[in-house]
Amino acid sequence: MQTAEQPPTVNVITGGAGGMGVACARALGGTVLLADLSAERLAEVAGELAGDGITVETTVCDVADPAQIAALVDRTAALGRLGALVHIAGVAPPGFTDPEAIIRIDLVATAQILEAFLPLVTTGSAAVCIASVGGHRGVSRPVDAVLADAFAPDLVDRLLAVLPTEDAGLAAYAFAKRGVILQCERYAAAWGARGGRVNSISPGHIDDTSMGSLIATASPYAAIAALGRAGKAVEIASVVSFLVSPGASYVTGTDLRVDGGTVPAILHHRDPEERDSWHRAGTSLPIA
Ligand SMILES: NC(=O)c1ccc[n+]([C@@H]2O[C@H](COP(=O)([O-])OP(=O)(O)OC[C@H]3O[C@@H](n4cnc5c(N)ncnc54)[C@H](O)[C@@H]3O)[C@@H](O)[C@H]2O)c1
Question: Residue 216 carries which DSSP code?
């Protein structure tokens, strides 16, 4: 008797042409669909990965555009069954400081992606969204209720209204990444109802990516980390692999800090002013 052939499992990675994206593609293997802004960069990365026994598909996709997210979902469905969805694409200071764009690209796009992929979720599908230790800063807690509803039409206006003018980009990033953590909590039930899981990872300073090398020019947090060093993209990828694996089958709706103990070191910093200034993200905003 002939049995129907199972469609292949596809692992989708946004920000797939970046440092963490490539490390995750290597760690996950199989059929990997890399989505990113630049066709040129995607082609370079696909070439690098081709020798590693990975089936690499690529697609140009700006995650800030819902129509391009819809096209990414269609492309995934055409390739096979959704396995892992690793949502890495994002922007951050000091390279990127426009607060509105940070909120739209980092936060709103994350909610749109988790929503748009929902119809493809089947038993075993698992999303990991990359948040940040920035999302653990106290400055964002008073606006949790706003951040939790990423589809509210007045979301951006409400956040811009409370942002100070000084260091607005850093505070917007803290808001947006806190929002990423909250979206993963919120979508756990909807994905769970279809047999899927959703988690976030909050990296500390990861210094072997383009973004990480820029952060190195502005942040002292690698030195503050309990482990006294920055992390590497492969150290994020190995935790992504765990979170999408059957070994994490009862883990959903949670955030895992992969920061070498950066947040714990700051929370228990011997100088309370140092701790509070980290929580304030350089602003004079109140912290909860
Ligand atoms: N590197 C760090 O120290 C660090 C720390 C905490 C969190 N993060 C988070 O990790 C992610 C960055 O990953 P990385 O360190 O590999 O950096 P990276 O710069 O190497 O990769 C980021 C990738 O995202 C892509 N991208 C940016 N905007 C996009 C958009 N609108 N649509 C599609 N793709 C887009 C870029 O083209 C790039 O390829 C971000 O979400 C960032 O907030 C990084």
Answer: T
Q: What is the pTM (predicted TM-score) of this model?
A: 0.97
- Kindly report, residue by residue over 78-133, the tens digit of the pLDDT: 999 999 999 999 999 999 999 999 999 999 999 999 999 999 999 999 999 999 99
Residue pLDDT, tens place only, 161-211: 998 887 899 999 999 999 999 999 999 999 999 999 999 999 999 999 999
271 Cα: distance to centroid of ligand 1 (angstroms): 31
**CA 222 / ligand 1 centre spacing (Å):** 18
Phi/psi region, residue 111 (left: phi>0; alpha: psi -120 to 50; beta: rest), is alpha
Please give the distance, rounded to the nearest whole angstrom, from the Cα atom of residue 1 to the centre of ligand 1.
Answer: 48
Cross-strand pairs, 59: 35
Q: Roughly what angle, to the nearest 10 degrees, separates helices 168-192 and 109-116?
A: 10
Mutate to test the pocket of ligand 1, among 20, 40, 213, 215 (most ligand atoms within 8 A of CB): 20
* CA 59 to mean position of chain CA atoms: 18
Atom of ligand 1 nearest to the CA of 38: 37
Strands 126-130, 55-60: pairing is: unpaired
